[in-house]
Prephenate/arogenate dehydrogenase domain-containing protein (Anaerosporomusa subterranea), 280 residues
Amino acid sequence: MIGGSIAIGLKRYVKPCPVILGLDRNANSLSAAKQQQVIDRVSQSPGPELLQADIVFLCTPVLQMEVVAASIAPFLKSGAIITDVGSTKSWLAPRMKSLLPPHVRYIGGHPMAGREKSGYSAADGNLFRDKWYLLCPDLDTDTQALQLIRALAESLGAKVDVMDSVRHDQCAAVISHTPHIAAAAMVNLLDCYPDPQTSLKLAGGGFRDTTRIASSDADMWADVCISNAPAILGSLQAYQGVLANLSAAVEQADRAAIRAFFASAKVHRDSLLEQLDNNK
């Protein structure tokens, strides 16, 4: 979905229109993108056609990127720019640099946009509009390559920020990774009760809205949890502490503490919504 959205956006908004090679194991996705004139050439495996690529976007689950990087490395020309859209950076960046040949330039990237759906059928050329697109260079990053990827991200309508990998992973753990885990846990919580189907039948908008992202791709999120384990574990421990404090307040019928819990959350979320509205 992310790769397809990037391709659609590049075709729609970048001038002169780039020539795009789509590389995917899914022949149906390639066929659909080719038929819609989103991509110009197709391939299901790396080969000499990659020698013409100036820029390569890696859009697979994080743990698969090692395999993909190793497979495309022999076909990358000197000066080519390789970037990715992975949700974690500290784990990935050193592995990418060790696998890719020294004559290419690597820029770690993460578009903070997505949906609970996956695959090319869910792709949207406006997916990144007004969303953050984070770039995570290091001391060896080629400045010209960084500026080019920034320009392409901005052409997709994204807001671009640059930060180091550790800070990125800590932020992502709190505002993206842990919420996905919490949504999945809420759905799985139904199985802890004797009649989950009745509970699900009675569920309304609150349950649906809270758990929407639990429909996300399981392979992608398994990779995220493994590759960002330190930051996610820290965030989960803090989350458990918040729940433990609330549990204690409920057990003690401490209405003031319970009310403070919800009031604080409302203030923070209302402030967040106001910031988002102001940034539009």
